[in-house]
Specification:
Helix 2 runs parallel beside helix 3, helix 6 crosses helix 9 and helix 12 (about 395-415) runs parallel beside helix 13. The longest helix is centred in the middle third of the chain and has 18 residues, at about 395-415. This protein has a domain at about 1-75: Jelly Rolls. The protein is built from 15 helices and 33 strands. With about 675 residues, it is of the alpha+beta class. The termini are far apart. The strands form 8 sheets. An 8-stranded parallel sheet has the order 16-15-14-13-10-9-8-17. Strands 18-19-20-25-22-23 form a 6-stranded antiparallel sheet. Strands 1-6-3-4 form a 4-stranded antiparallel sheet, with no helix packed on it.
Length: about 675
C-alpha cells in the first residue's frame, strides 16, 4: 500500500501499526518500522517521526502473511498540544500519589522498594544457566539434555519443563502423564543427585473442566464463572477458566494443589505462565475485564492488572510456610508493582526470533529494572521463529544467520540478571548450533564460562539488591546523571558498577560504536586491558566470539574458579581484578546461597578499597558469618593500569596472592 499524509503542524507524529507476520513502514523513503510477529499474537509497533507543517510525506506499507490470522492496521497521531502528563482511572474512586524524591535514581528505586517491599535473595543457582525449550516431551528427553551439558562440561544449573507434562485433557491437574513421565520422583531425583541440577516447572493458574482440581476449586467458589457459562474453550478446544487469585482462600488452595503434586516431589522453581491472566482465546482487554470477574476484591476492570502480583503471592507465601528455610524462585510472564517482594522475576514474554526484537530487549530490560523491580530476563534467541529459520530444510545462508543471531543473543543474555534460553523449534541447546567445533558453540561456551566465573561479582550485586535496594541492570543515566548523552543511549548499559555492556544486535557486525561516558581514570577494554578516555564514542571490536565490554576505572571485579554448577565447590580462590586510575571500592557479599538464614543476619560482607594516591588495596575486616563460610580464603590480585594492559583470561596470572583470615589487610601494589 502507498499513500501520503500532509502535516498540518510541525512536530513529532506517531505512526502505530498493529499486526502479525512481517510488516515494514517507510516515511518519505526512510524505514521507520520493520518487525516480524508470530501469526497468533499480533503486536503494536510505534514509530515517532518529525514532520514539517505544509509538507506532504509519502508512506509505503508492506505486510506479508506467513502464518495465522490476518491482522494489520496502521494509525497515525498528530503532535500533542502540551507536554503535561495526565493520570486518570475509569474505576478508581481516588488516586494516591507517592513522590519519591531521590534525587539520585538509586535512591528513587530504594524509596519505591521501601513503599512496595524489598526483594528477597534468590537462590545462588538462579544466577546460573537456565535451559528450556517448548517443550521437553518426556522425562527422558530432558534428562538427555542435562546429560548433554554435563558430558560436554558446559556450566549449567537449571533445566525447565514447559507445559503439557500432563495428559492432553488434564490441564490444571498438575499430574504427570504416566506414559511420558512414568516416575516423576525418580526423574527429579536424578536431576538433583546424578546431575547436580535444579528443575523449574510450568504452572498455569488455569483449570480444565472435569479435572479433580477444577472440581475442588469450583466447589469453594474460587473459579471465574463467565468462561464456563459461555462455554469458552481454549486453543486446544477444551472448556477452561482461571482461579480467583485475589481470594486468600483460593491462593491457599492453589498452593496446596501445587504442593501435593509438584513441590512434594522435589520441584525447585516455578514458571508461572499466562499470569495476565491469559483467560480468553484472544486476549482483548475488554473481554479480560468482563471475564476476570467478579474478584474477591472488586470488579475485573478494577483489579485485572494486579493478577500476577497475587498469583505470585500464593506461591511465595505457600512455599515459605511449607518449607520456611528454602528460598522460593518464581518466574512470571507479567508483573505489577511490588512483585519483587514475592521472590519473582519477570521475562519479556513470547518475543520473536529477529534482530530487531533482540535490539529492543535492551531498552525493555532497562526500562523494567528502572521501574524498581530488579529481576528481568528474556527468551534468549526469541520464542517464535520465522519460517526461514524453522523450516525442515533451511537455506545455508539462513542457517548461518540463525546461529549468529542466537550467539549474539546469548552473549547479551550473559549480562542480564538471569541467563535463560528458551524458544520453539529449532532446539536451543548450544551444541545444536553446528556441533562442538562450530564458532557458534565455542562463542556460547565462552560467554557461559565467563558468566560462571563472574558469579562472585553477580551474587554480590544480588546481595546489594536485597540489602541496599540496588539495581543490577542499569541505564547509563543511573551512573552518569550529569552526562547529557547518557539519557539518549538505549543500546548500552551498566551491569553493576563495573561493566559497560554493548550488545551486538545486527547481523555480521564485527565493530560497533560504543559511547564511553566521562569518568575519572577513563575505561578499560575488558578483553585487552587497553585504557580509553571517557567522553567519546569509540569504534569497538566485536568479533564473533565476544561483544564489547568495558570496565570503569576504579572498579574491583571479583571472579571465581571454574565450576560446572554453582554448588560444585567453594568460591576459592577469588581473583580480584583491580582497574586503577581512580579510587574505587566493592563490597564482596556471601551467604549460604540456599536458605533464608540471611534474613536473621547469617551473611558476610567484605569491603575492598583501592586508593589511587597510595597505590594500596585494602581488604577490609569481614563483617558477619554464616554456616559453611570459609574461615580462611585465597585472594589473587590482578592489577590493570594505563601502563599495564591486562585483558581478561580464564587463567589469570596474579601479581600478589593473599591468605585472608577475616582481618583487615592492606597491600601496597607497585605499578610494574
Amino acid at each position: 500500500w502507498e499513500g501520503e499524509v500532509e502535516a498540518r503542524e510541525t512536530g513529532e507524529y506517531q505512526f502505530k501499526t498493529f499486526s502479525n507476520n512481517g510488516i515494514k513502514l517507510w516515511v518519505d523513503g526512510q524505514l521507520v518500522t520493520s518487525r516480524w510477529r508470530q501469526g497468533w499474537l499480533p503486536e503494536v509497533s510505534l514509530a515517532k517521526v518529525k514532520l514539517e507543517t505544509g509538507h506532504r510525506y509519502k508512506l509505503k506499507l508492506e505486510w506479508a502473511k506467513q502464518q495465522g490470522m490476518e491482522t494489520m492496521n496502521l494509525r497515525w497521531k498528530t503532535p500533542s498540544k502540551e507536554n503535561a502528563t495526565a493520570l486518570w482511572s475509569e474505576v478508581g474512586e481516588g488516586v494516591d500519589y507517592y513522590f519519591i524524591y531521590g534525587p539520585e535514581m538509586d535512591k528513587v528505586v530504594a524509596g519505591y522498594r521501601q513503599v512496595t517491599g524489598k526483594a528477597p535473595m534468590m537462590p545462588l543457582w538462579a544466577y546460573g544457566l537456565w535451559q528450556s525449550r517448548q517443550r521437553y516431551k518426556t522425562s527422558q528427553e530432558s534428562l538427555d539434555v542435562v546429560e548433554g551439558f554435563r558430558s560436554r562440561k558446559i556450566p549449567f544449573d537449571n533445566i525447565v519443563q514447559d507445559w503439557q507434562y500432563w495428559k492432553e485433557d488434564a490441564w490444571g491437574s498438575h499430574e504427570f502423564d504416566p506414559a511420558r513421565f512414568p516416575d516423576p520422583v525418580k526423574w527429579i531425583k536424578d536431576i538433583h543427585d546424578k546431575y547436580h541440577a535444579r528443575l523449574m516447572i510450568s504452572v498455569w493458574p488455569k483449570f480444565y473442566a472435569g479435572t479433580k482440581n477444577f472440581e475442588e476449586m469450583r466447589s469453594h467458589g474460587f473459579l471465574y464463572e463467565p468462561n464456563l457459562g459461555e462455554e469458552v474453550t481454549d486453543w486446544l478446544g477444551h472448556p477452561t477458566t482461571f482461579y480467583d487469585a485475589y481470594n486468600p482462600g483460593a491462593r491457599k488452595l492453589f498452593w496446596s494443589l501445587m504442593n501435593r503434586e509438584l513441590f512434594s516431589k522435589g520441584v525447585d522453581a516455578w514458571w508461572m505462565d499466562a499470569s495476565e491472566p491469559d483467560l480468553m482465546p484472544t486476549p482483548i482487554l475488554k473481554d479480560q475485564r468482563t471475564h476476570v470477574h467478579p474478584t474477591a476484591l472488586g470488579s475485573g476492570a478494577r483489579m485485572l492488572n494486579a493478577f500476577p502480583l497475587v498469583n505470585s503471592q500464593a506461591i511465595y507465601e505457600g512455599q515459605r510456610k511449607t518449607a520456611p528455610d528454602q528460598r522460593p524462585f518464581i518466574l512470571t510472564r507479567s508483573g505489577f508493582s511490588g512483585m519483587q517482594r514475592y521472590g519473582s522475576a519477570v521475562w519479556s514474554g513470547d518475543i520473536t526470533s529477529t534482530w530487531e526484537t533482540m535490539r529492543v530487549q535492551v531498552s525493555a530490560g532497562l526500562g523494567f529494572c528502572l521501574s524498581g523491580m530488579p529481576y528481568w530476563t528474556m527468551d534468549i534467541g526469541g520464542f517464535s521463529v520465522p519460517a526461514r529459520f524453522a523450516s525442515g530444510k533451511p537455506k545455508a545462508a539462513d542457517v548461518e544467520e540463525w546461529r549468529e543471531l542466537n550467539t549474539r543473543w546469548f552473549q547479551f543474555g550473559a549480562f542480564v540478571p538471569l541467563l535463560r534460553v528458551h524458544g520453539e523449534s529449532p532446539n536451543r541447546e548450544m551444541w545444536e548450533f553446528g556441533g562442538e567445533t562450530s564458532p557458534a558453540y565455542q562463542a556460547h561456551l565462552k560467554a557461559d564460562r565467563l558468566r560462571y566465573r563472574l558469579l562472585p561479582y553477580i551474587y554480590s550485586l544480588a546481595g546489594g539488591v536485597t540489602q541496599e535496594s540496588g539495581t543490577i541492570m542499569r541505564p547509563l543515566v543511573m551512573d552518569f546523571p550529569g552526562d547529557p548523552k547518557a539519557p539518549t543511549v538505549d543500546d548500552q548499559y551498566m551491569f553493576g558498577p563495573g561493566f559497560l555492556v554493548s550488545p551486538v544486535t545486527a547481523y555480521q557486525v564485527r565493530n560497533r560504536p560504543v559511547y564511553l561516558p566521562e569518568t575519572a581514570g577513563g575505561w578499560y577494554d575488558f578483553w585487552t586491558g587497553a585504557n580509553l578516555a571517557g567522553g567519546q564514542t569509540v569504534d569497538a571490536p566485536a568479533p564473533y566470539d565476544a561483544i564489547p565490554l568495558h570496565i570503569r576505572a576504579g572498579s574491583i571485579i571479583p571472579t571465581g574458579p571454574e565450576v560446572q554448577y554453582t554448588g560444585e565447590k567453594p568460591a576459592d580462590p577469588i581473583t580480584l581484578h583491580v582497574y586503577t586510575g581512580t579510587d574505587g571500592s566493592f563490597t564482596f557479599y556471601e551467604d549460604d546461597g540456599l536458605t533464608n538464614r540471611y534474613e536473621k543476619g547469617a551473611l558476610s560482607r567484605i569491603l575492598i578499597r583501592w586508593s589511587e594516591a597510595t597505590k594500596t588495596l585494602t581488604i577490609g575486616k569481614r563483617e558477619g558469618s554464616f554456616k559453611g563460610m570459609l574461615k580462611t580464603r585465597t585472594f589473587n590480585i590482578v592489577l590493570i593500569s594505563k601502563d599495564k594492559s591486562v585483558g581478561f583470561s580464564f587463567d589469570p596470572k596474579p601479581e600478589r596472592t593473599l591468605q585472608y583470615d577475616g582481618k583487615e589487610t592492606v597491600l601496597r601494589l607497585e605499578m610494574k
